[in-house]
Every structure is written in structure tokens, then in C-alpha cells.
UniProtKB/TrEMBL annotation:
PROSITE patterns: ABC_TRANSPORTER_1, ABC_TRANSPORTER_2
The name this protein goes by in its record: ABC-2 type transport system ATP-binding protein
Domain of life (superkingdom): Bacteria
Entry keyword set: ATP-binding, Cell membrane, Membrane, Nucleotide-binding, Transport
A Pfam family reported for this protein in Swiss-Prot or TrEMBL: ABC_tran
SUPFAM superfamilies in the cross-refs: P-loop containing nucleoside triphosphate hydrolases
The UniProt record lists the keyword 4Fe-4S: no
GO terms, molecular function: ATP binding; ATP hydrolysis activity
Length: 311
């Protein structure tokens, strides 16, 4: 049975000038899951990661990682975490090999050249191991950040917008590495603007808006509940209004009267489509085309973050 590796309770962060970056966050993250944190710029994603990693102190609330409080037992908690930040901050004149060895040592881990060699090979960095980081391309520097984050074999890996502005080859390599890490039991927390990545990879999804966690849901359940299907019927003759006998279906009529749209839950309302088509036939309402579409995770995300938040 899986247990929670990260527990966050009543977490808020208010900066000295009064800006409330996070408000009353409660969240448990299970060991071995991939949790995607989605939200627009400025929503509080990076602040939340920095609080969990002990980089920023909370105003109120608590965070524990692997049972270690991030403030009172900082060293033990931080040793469980690997962090790949958004910014390319690297020790410019160090070689790739020196920097990953040094980072591993910072966490009190014994040297393990075989592990580090495998890590660099997995990230297509082995050929660059003796290169100074300053000489590398942006994509290669990003790979070095990932290698540094994984150098001490953390139990939890944070990826903060990891594929923003990187090339396709790195994205492919990185997602293969993420899959391998998850299969090995590493917990991964991901923030991303590439919603298709979350849709493909995540087990659960959290949506943060204006410093508040407005939704946490298993991805499959979220898609089921919010990813409703739509059936659009192109009418043979325009309508001026929906007949009363169709009122129970919750149909929408396009402004020009040419399209009827039925929104339904694909799991539970299959029989309703047949009933709807039968009713249309009995009423003599003909249509010459129909098509179905399903909301993507992106549609769901956009609708959630653009709802007017309560003041």
C-alpha cells in the first residue's frame, strides 16, 4: 500500500509587502506517483516548490518530506529531494563530471562513478563529461541541471517547467528518464505549460490559481468528470427554438439555429444519445451531419483558471 511521501498542511506564504503568494494549501503526495501542478504564470507554482524544498520559509503551515519536517529537520528532508529549477544556474567553469560529483558529495553520499556514468549516459551527457559547462548549449545545460538533481539518488524529484524552451530531443530523453525513475519508485512533481505532457504522464493533477489550490484529482477521474463529450447535429432546416419535448436533454441551439449540441458524460449516458436521436426522428427534425468531440485537459485547465476567482 502506498503512503504519502509529502504532507502539506495549512501552508501560506505572505511576503513582507503584503503579497499573498500562497493561501492555506493542504496536499498529500503519494510515494511513486507523478503529480502535475498546473497553473498560469504567477499562480504560485514555483513558490510552492520552493517552500517544499526549504528554499523559502512559510508564513504559516507545515511541510514534511519522508516524515521529516522541512524546517526542524531540514537536512534530512532536503536530502530526499532533487530539484530541477526553471533557471539555468550552473557552475560555469566546472566540468560536467566535477559538478555532478560535487553535488552528490554535498548530500553526504559516497562516490559512485558507475551510477553517475549511467546517469550522464541516460541524459546524453557522457560525451560532454569533461567539457566546461560554460561551453555547453542551453539544452545541454538543462541536462546538467537534471543530472545534478539526480546525482544523490533522491526519493522525490521536482521538475519546474523542465521542458520550457528546450529542443525536441531533450524532451524525448527527459520523458524516458522520468518514466524510468517513476518505474523505480521515485516520486515526481512536475509543473508545466505543456498540458499534453501532463495529460500523457500524470497520475494526479492539481490546479493552482492566485495562490490557492482549487482542484486536486486523479487524472482519469478529472477527464471523466470534466472532459465531457459533445455531439453536434447539423440540422437540415434551421430552428428558432428548442421544442419543449427536447427540454430534458439540456441541448444548446447555435445562434443561427443550424446546430444542436448535446453535452454528455461518455461513461454514463450512452443510452441517452439513442433516445435523443429517436425523439428527433419522431418530431420530424432532420439533420444531415453529426460529429462528436471531447474536451482535452487543456480545455478543462483553461476553463478552470479563467473563471473569476472570488475576492
Amino acid at each position: 500500500m502506498t503512503h504519502n511521501i509529502i504532507s502539506i498542511s495549512g501552508l501560506s506564504k505572505t511576503y513582507p509587502k503584503g503579497f499573498e503568494a500562497l493561501r492555506n494549501i493542504h496536499l498529500d503526495i503519494r510515494q511513486g506517483e507523478l503529480f502535475a501542478l498546473l497553473g498560469p504564470n504567477g499562480a504560485g507554482k514555483t513558490t510552492l516548490i520552493n517552500l517544499i524544498c526549504g528554499i523559502v520559509r512559510p508564513t504559516v503551515g507545515s511541510v514534511s518530506v519522508g516524515g521529516f519536517d522541512i524546517i526542524t529537520r531540514y537536512k534530512q528532508a532536503r536530502a530526499m529531494i532533487g530539484l530541477v529549477p526553471q533557471e539555468l544556474t550552473t557552475d560555469a567553469f566546472e566540468t560536467v563530471w566535477a559538478t555532478v560529483c560535487y553535488t552528490r558529495g554535498l548530500f553526504g553520499k559516497r562516490p559512485d562513478p558507475a551510477y553517475l556514468e549511467k546517469l550522464l549516459r541516460d541524459l546524453s551527457l557522457w560525451e560532454k563529461k569533461d567539457s566546461q559547462i560554460v561551453t555547453l548549449s542551453g539544452g545541454m545545460k538543462r541536462r546538467v541541471l537534471i543530472a545534478k538533481a539526480l546525482s544523490h539518488q533522491p526519493h522525490v524529484l521536482f521538475l519546474d517547467e523542465p521542458t520550457a524552451g528546450v529542443d525536441v530531443a531533450l524532451r524525448r530523453d527527459m520523458w524516458q528518464l522520468v518514466r524510468d525513475l517513476r518505474n523505480a519508485g521515485v516520486t515526481i512533481i512536475l509543473t508545466t505549460h505543456y498540458i499534453e505532457e501532463a495529460e500523457e504522464m500524470a497520475d494526479r493533477i492539481g490546479v493552482i490559481r492566485k495562490g490557492e489550490l482549487i482542484l486536486v484529482e486523479d487524472k482519469v477521474e478529472l477527464m471523466r468528470k470534466l472532459g465531457m463529450k459533445r455531439l453536434s447535429l447539423q440540422l437540415a432546416e434551421p430552428m428558432t427554438a428548442i421544442p419543449p419535448s427536447l427540454a430534458g436533454y439540456g441541448l444548446e441551439l447555435s445562434p443561427d439555429g443550424n446546430v444542436l449540441t448535446y453535452t454528455y458524460d461518455s461513461q454514463s449516458e450512452r443510452g441517452m444519445i439513442a433516445a435523443l436521436l429517436d425523439t428527433l426522428n419522431r418530431l420530424g427534425i432532420a439533420f444531415h451531419d453529426l460529429n462528436t468531440s471531447q474536451r482535452s485537459l487543456e480545455d478543462i485547465f483553461v476553463s478552470l483558471v479563467h473563471e473569476d476567482a472570488a475576492p
